[in-house]
Amino acid sequence: MSTLFNRDIISIGDLSKDEIQAVLGQAAEFEQQLARGERATVGQTLLNRVLATVFYEPSTRTRLSFESAMNRLGGRVVSVAEAKTSSSAAKGETIYDSGRMLESYADVIVQRHPATGSARALADAAGVPVINAGDGTGEHPTQALLDLYTIQREGAEGGALRSLDGLHVAMVGDLKNGRTVHSLSKALSHWNVTLSYVAPPELAMPQDVVSFVQSRGATVHQTTDVTAALKTADIAYITRIQQERFPSVEEYLKLKGVYVISADVVARAKPGIAIMHPLPRVDEITTDVDTLPNAAYFRQARNGVFVRMALLAMVLGAV
Ligand code: CP
Question: What is the pTM of this model?
Fold first, then answer.
């Protein structure tokens, strides 16, 4: 049984490199099984097991891919999509009390919440595993896992996952508020990678993340020049400027549109570069990129199902 059995997944740092590789390997197995039209091979343990998804912030990909994953594994789902207004949080119920309730209704809980640290708070209360689906500007560990999987799948030959060693990943946009780039940076630092952080000074990658990845041996470049960074990057990981994290609309408008990746920009980048984005996008990737073979972001979102199937199956002890 996996070492992830019965574990909370709050930060990508909760997983060792071996555990990350085990999740990615299991995801590849599930992807192949589904591509062959087969059912996912899991123990009977998932029949009648219940996933609760509790989202206090909007989501399309994370919530629905978790729910799709649980359904494809043969389990069941209960869900509250607008927990801020339609759960008893609207009446003042605390995360602690919510956790004490949810543990009676589900075998695993996936929560998204605007407060950094909220996933840890829920995990401390609930007696079942909690998976963090994004806690404010903190972390989004399952996004990091599907991003790693996508990086390994893009450019892989013959369906095998490619090595992450030696890759140059450029992260572009709102690196201050983007929890996906925080988690992905930490995850990538298990390998011998070069990370280019491309952001205006106001949206730079937090220093604690930079120091962490450097302490693990990653080579870090910080720049405002996206064109130069993409000339040598294997992966361009583009992020949205997160309006909802700004103190005012005026502050947001000063930085909106600071980087826009168009087909012209891709044409001047390293040949074969993969363009990734956790989505949703606003205006930072123009639609003329969508038809290029470099556009990996819709494949990336699809990979979320396989990776979340793997994670749920491992946490619930089904593989
Ligand atoms: N990437 C991501 O977290 O997307 P959603 O906000 O739609 O879940």
Answer: 0.95
